[in-house]
């Protein structure tokens, strides 16, 4: 079952339901032509994989030995010195450094900074009566928030924005590799600057951590943070706004019986930023409860979207946070609180300022076997005539 075709990208929920009917919770898929994997649709099976890291490690080294350099999904999945692509002691070392740095982030400062910048961005369009919420609001807001916590400012933030844009506009394997080299070189400069003059920020705390990470290792951790933080948090904001604008039931209850966090949770169930992710590689073949064998070294990938039968079906899910949008187990997102903080402020500020937004055009998605992001979210609203 191919995850890379336009047909799949157009109607993923439809295909998931079809495949669940045909194969049950473990679906044999292709991530690219000839790149075989198993997609886990069942919530119970997903937890079994995510909570057994010895049987299902995240280390792809056995898989990538047999995968050519021009494989279109190799760069997304290949190994590297980060918690996301290692197992055991190595994973614990990198993850320990991330967790220690992320808990030191001053959430009050972050909240105040994000609020201030959200208002600045909204002020630039709310007298106009229309806006493109990805380019004019969500993306720059999230990037600024992540720059703040990492400790990137001035010229480095402009260079970083260019490097990330090059990675988003990737068309082929070579341009993806070039984008990644550019990002690494900008982050290397950042790390050297922090080495010379440490600050109160994640980059400096990673450098100073007792794990003794080298400069190259800190560059890899920062690249992982930008990769895991910027697009996913932007997508969460946009997907939740889209849901509010298109679901009358949700829009009517928001601010009353439904909180911003409830709306975010609904989007995390039905439209998670990473749709199929948390890739694991059993080192020996695994027999699952339903009699299916998972081959050794072949990717096992988890469906994070509740597009099939899901843990709670389509019932009212207020207060239910059993979605897998942030993963689970020892690789589960160490910064879900930070992502949710940024998204909550973004939504609260926007809904307060322009509560009468409506979608202005047909929406376009950028998709891959792993994600589904809105390329733009144009909206129209009554222009606000005078600033308070
Ligand atoms: C709404 C926003 C976010 C979503 C949906 C999200 C989702 C995820 C998911 C699904 C994983 C698990 C990957 C796996 O099991 O293989 C993960 C891991 C991770 N996330 Fe997040 N994330 C978000 C925000 C952030 C932010 C803001 C940061 C950093 C500031 C961050 C840093 C990380 C890191 C470092 C890992 C790797 C942890 C490990 O492998 O041990 N994420 N994230």
In short:
This protein has 15 helices and 11 strands. It has 388 residues and is α+β, with helices and mostly antiparallel strands.
What top-tier CATH class fits best? Mainly Alpha
Q: Write down the overall geometry.
A: globular
Distance between the termini: 55 Å
The distinct bound ligands, ions and cofactors come out as: protoporphyrin IX containing FE
- In CATH, the homologous superfamily goes by the name Cytochrome P450
Q: Bin the strand percentage.
A: 5-15%
Rg, rounded, reads 21 Å
SSE topology string: HHEEHHHHHEHHHHHHHEEEEHEEEE
Number of domains: 1
Main sheet, how many strands, which sense, barrel?
4 strands, mixed
Record field, number of beta strands? 11
- Ranges where pLDDT stays below 50 over 5 or more residues in a row are none
Oligomer: single chain
CATH architecture: Orthogonal Bundle
Q: How is the largest sheet built, in terms of strand order?
A: 1-2-7-4
So how many helices? Answer: 15
Average pLDDT taken over every residue: 92
Defining key terms:
heme, 4-stranded mixed sheet, Cytochrome p450
Overview of the molecule:
With 388 residues, the protein is of the alpha+beta class. It has a single domain, classed as Cytochrome P450 (Cytochrome p450, Orthogonal Bundle), CATH 1.10.630.10. The protein has 15 helices and 11 strands. The protein has helices at 6-10, 12-23, 43-50, 61-64, 74-77, 88-103, 107-123, 134-150, 155-168, 173-196, 202-208, 215-246, 248-253, 260-270, 336-353; strands spanning 26-32, 35-40, 130-132, 276-280, 286-287, 293-294, 300-303, 358-359, 365-367, 372-374, 378-380. The strands form 4 sheets. A 4-stranded mixed beta sheet has the order 1-2-7-4. The protein has a 3-stranded antiparallel beta sheet with strand order 3-11-8. A hairpin with a 2-residue loop joins β1 (26-32) and β2 (35-40). The chain is globular, with a radius of gyration of 21 Å. The relative contact order is 0.17. The model has no long low-confidence stretch (mean pLDDT 92). It binds protoporphyrin IX containing FE. The site of protoporphyrin IX containing FE (HEM) has 26 residues, from α6, α12, β4 and α15.
């Amino acid at each position: 079952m191919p995850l890379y075709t336009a047909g799949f990208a157009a109607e993923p929920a439809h295909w998931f339901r079809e495949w669940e009917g045909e194969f049950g919770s473990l679906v044999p898929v292709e991530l690219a032509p000839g790149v075989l994997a198993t997609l886990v649709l069942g919530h119970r099976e997903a937890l079994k994989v995510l909570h057994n890291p010895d049987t299902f490690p995240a280390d792809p080294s056995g898989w990538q030995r047999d995968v050519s350099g021009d494989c279109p999904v190799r760069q997304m999945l290949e190994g590297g010195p980060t918690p996301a692509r290692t197992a055991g002691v190595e994973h614990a070392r990198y993850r320990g450094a991330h967790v220690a740095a992320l808990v030191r982030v001053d959430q009050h400062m972050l909240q105040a900074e994000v609020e201030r910048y959200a208002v600045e961005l909204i002020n630039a369009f709310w007298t106009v009566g229309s806006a493109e919420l990805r380019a004019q609001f969500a993306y720059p807001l999230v990037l600024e928030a992540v720059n703040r916590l990492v400790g990137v400012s001035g010229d480095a933030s402009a260079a970083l924005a260019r490097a990330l844009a090059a990675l988003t506009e990737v068309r082929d394997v070579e341009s993806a590799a070039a984008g990644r080299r550019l990002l690494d070189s900008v982050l290397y400069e950042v790390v050297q600057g922090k080495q010379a003059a440490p600050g109160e920020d994640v980059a400096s705390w990673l450098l100073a951590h007792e794990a003794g990470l080298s400069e190259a290792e800190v560059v890899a951790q920062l690249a992982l943070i930008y990769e895991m933080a910027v697009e996913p948090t932007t997508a969460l904001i946009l997907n939740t706004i889209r849901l509010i604008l298109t679901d009358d039931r949700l829009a009517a209850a928001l601010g009353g019986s439904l909180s911003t966090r409830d709306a975010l949770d609904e989007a995390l169930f039905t439209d998670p930023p990473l749709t199929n992710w948390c890739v694991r590689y059993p080192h020996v073949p695994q027999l699952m409860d339903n009699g299916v064998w998972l081959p050794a070294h072949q990717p096992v990938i988890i469906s994070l979207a509740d597009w099939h039968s899901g843990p709670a079906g389509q019932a009212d899910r207020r207060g239910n946070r059993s979605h897998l949008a942030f993963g689970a187990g020892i690789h589960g997102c160490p910064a879900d609180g930070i992502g949710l903080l940024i998204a909550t402020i973004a939504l609260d500020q926007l809904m307060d300022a322009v509560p009468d937004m409506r979608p202005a055009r047909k929406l376009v998605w950028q998709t891959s076997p792993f994600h589904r992001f809105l390329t733009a979210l144009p909206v129209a609203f009554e222009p606000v005539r005078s600033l308070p």
